[in-house]
Design goal:
65% of the residues lie in helices and 3% in strands. It is mostly helical and 289 residues long. A hairpin with a 4-residue loop joins strand 2 and strand 3. It has a single domain, classed as Ribonucleotide Reductase, subunit A.
Length: 289
């Protein structure tokens, strides 16, 4: 894709009804081609499951010392000893999906109670994709010598997640859009930081592949929610974004040590999101006059 112009979109640009219809139809076709058949009971997507098994049977492992104590001290918040940049990166990826993993588990359990036939097909695939994100991040940590078990988030995060679940349909997706905008921004930063593992090219390549899968999904989740929500909801999400960003920096302070402090995160959030190269179904925003 070298030489092709960078295509992007504003997560909060208001779409007209025809643009929304076109986008949702294109996204559903993309999901069917990329994911295969969803299985709610097994919580799997057929093509993703095959791809993930190929990763598991061909493991790549970091060779050398790993700061286990520093990682878990930062991850559990029991202490913050000085740690190297690679360990900071691992803590950040481990914490970035912690609350989302808990929320997705609750959401999929609610889907099971309702029955797959009553769940919006895109919402089902979106939540199953998030399920794979948790597995991917555990695999990324394992690649770097860290055996991670995702824990329940702090009670404050759990309270917020349960609140979102019981909100009316027209409100509950507003904070989700905020979270996906933050996720796509942070995972692009983490993807671009895989060079920290460049001393072992196979490890760097594996991490780029794993983080790239998450970043691509997160960008498309933002685009889906922009098309799904009405103008009022999109504007509300935009207004909530600074508060959500402050909460993220509090939960994942390691981002600042990786070069993304509050000011840098705010700058990145003002920048349109990159559309992943090779994406033909998604329309870029028109040039600003």
């Amino acid at each position: 894709m070298t030489g092709l112009p960078r295509r992007s979109f504003d997560p909060f640009r208001i779409l007209d009804d025809e643009q929304r219809r076109r986008h949702l139809a294109g996204y559903l076709r993309h999901l069917e081609e990329r994911n295969g058949t969803p299985d709610l009971a097994a919580r799997t997507l057929s093509r993703r499951e095959r791809a993930f098994r190929e990763i598991e049977v061909k493991p790549v492992e970091w060779e050398g010392e790993v700061d286990q104590y520093g990682f878990f001290a930062h991850f559990f918040g029991s202490a913050r000893p000085t740690i190297d940049a690679r360990t900071l990166w691992l803590v950040a990826i481990a914490k970035a999906n912690e609350g989302e993993s808990y929320g997705v588990d609750l959401e999929l359990s609610a889907f099971l109670e309702r029955g797959a036939e009553d769940v919006h097909p895109i919402e089902l695939q979106l939540m199953l994709e998030e399920q794979y994100h948790s597995r991917i991040l555990v695999e990324a940590c394992r690649t770097c010598g860290i055996d991670l078990e995702l824990r329940k988030p702090r009670w404050g995060q759990r309270w917020m997640i349960h609140l979102i679940q019981v909100l009316p349909e027209q409100l509950r997706w507003i904070p989700v859009l905020c979270g996906e905008v933050l996720g796509s921004t942070v995972f692009k930063l983490l993807l671009d930081s895989c060079h920290l593992f460049g001393a072992q090219p196979e490890v760097e390549a594996r991490l780029r592949h794993l983080l790239g899968e998450i970043w691509l999904d997160e960008v498309f989740h933002v685009a889906f929610l922009r098309a799904r929500l009405g103008p009022w909801s999109v504007r509300c999400a935009q207004a909530m974004l600074p508060l959500a960003a402050r909460m993220l920096m509090k939960d994942v302070p390691q981002l600042a040590a990786l070069g993304c402090d509050r000011a840098e995160l705010a700058r990145r959030l003002r920048t349109p999101l990159e559309i992943p190269p090779g994406t033909t179904w998604m329309e870029a925003d028109p040039p600003v006059a």
